[in-house]
């Protein structure tokens, strides 16, 4: 299939999970080429191709994971040599093909890993996971809603689908956003080692307090008595399921 002269690396993680930051940090490596200045939203590869549906076709951030059509595996009718060829042709103008590793970042990759692996069997996957509160607050703002129950349900559904698919992947590295901002140099070394690259230091400063501002916003929302009742009920409802990923809604600062 197309692209065998290169190694493809697919970066995945829900919107606001740190995919854009991590993509920049990885693409700063001299052996890696990523997308930049494409004109597409957040330079996401999903908007630069015509093979599979983008999240804009199925609800956008905070909703796309509910659409069965967005979860693609090796059994998808879209899997073919023609699809692999066309994807590579559509993405290639945005890469520096003199570099051996080609990086593509799109949040919905989280539920398309098996499909992408089938198209490109030698590909690798880097998946970043972030606490659901910092993911959900800005996503809810984009959507013009305060239905955090739906935001958390979407977060859980997408990560559950990925966990089901994970066992089918040959090469996958999973990290938590909180680990990345706590020690970016160490986390990048681990990722570069996974990608069989010599490590390079972080190319930019990382905001170590990025989560805390959203935790403060969460507490501000709770100052409204009616909102507090709702958020407490939502937190209780999803706490057990969120804890499986190392996070807490009731005590968000006590995460990993």
Q: Which spans of ≥5 residues are poorly predicted at pLDDT below 50? A: none
Structural class: alpha/beta
How many E strands?
5
Helix and strand succession? EHEHEHEHHEHHHH
CATH class type: Alpha Beta
Radius of gyration, in angstroms, nearest whole number: 18 Å
**Biggest sheet, strands in spatial order?**
2-3-1-4-5
Biggest pleated-sheet summary: 5 strands, parallel
Shape: globular
The mean pLDDT is: 95
Helix content: 40-55%
Do you know the CATH topology? Rossmann fold
Count of separate structural domains: 1
Q: How many helices?
A: 9
Strand composition percent: 5-15%
Gap between N and C termini: 40 Å
CATH superfamily: P-loop containing nucleotide triphosphate hydrolases
| CATH architecture assignment name | 3-Layer(aba) Sandwich
Topology:
Elements: E1 7-12, H1 19-27, E2 32-33, H2 81-91, E3 101-105, H3 113-119, E4 124-129, H4 132-143, H5 148-166, E5 172-176, H6 177-182, H7 184-194, H8 210-221, H9 225-243
Parallel strand pairs: 1-3, 1-4, 2-3, 4-5
Helix pairs in contact: 4-5, 5-9
């Amino acid at each position: 299939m197309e692209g065998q002269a290169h190694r493809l690396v697919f970066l995945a993680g829900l919107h606001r999970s740190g995919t854009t930051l991590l993509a920049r940090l990885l693409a700063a490596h001299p052996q890696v080429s990523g997308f930049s200045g494409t004109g597409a939203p957040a330079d996401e590869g999903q908007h630069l191709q015509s093979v599979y549906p983008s999240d804009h076709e199925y609800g956008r951030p905070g909703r796309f994971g509910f659409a069965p059509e967005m979860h693609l595996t090796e059994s998808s009718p879209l899997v073919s040599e023609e699809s692999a060829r066309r994807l590579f042709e559509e993405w290639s103008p945005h890469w520096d093909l003199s570099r051996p590793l080609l990086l593509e970042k799109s949040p919905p990759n989280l539920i398309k890993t098996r499909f992408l692996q089938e198209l490109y069997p030698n590909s690798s996957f880097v998946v970043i996971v972030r606490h659901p509160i910092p993911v959900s607050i800005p996503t809810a703002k984009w959507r013009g809603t305060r239905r955090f129950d739906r935001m958390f349900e979407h977060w859980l559904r997408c990560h559950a689908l990925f966990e089901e698919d994970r066992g089918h992947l040959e090469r996958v590295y999973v990290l938590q956003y909180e680990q990345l901002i706590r020690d970016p140099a160490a986390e990048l070394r681990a990722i570069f080692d996974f990608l069989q690259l010599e490590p390079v230091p972080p190319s930019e400063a990382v905001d170590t307090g990025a989560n805390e501002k959203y935790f403060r916003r969460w507490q501000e929302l709770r100052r409204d008595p009616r909102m507090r009742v709702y958020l407490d009920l939502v937190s209780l409802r999803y706490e057990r399921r969120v804890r499986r990923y190392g996070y807490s809604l009731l005590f968000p600062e006590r995460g990993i």
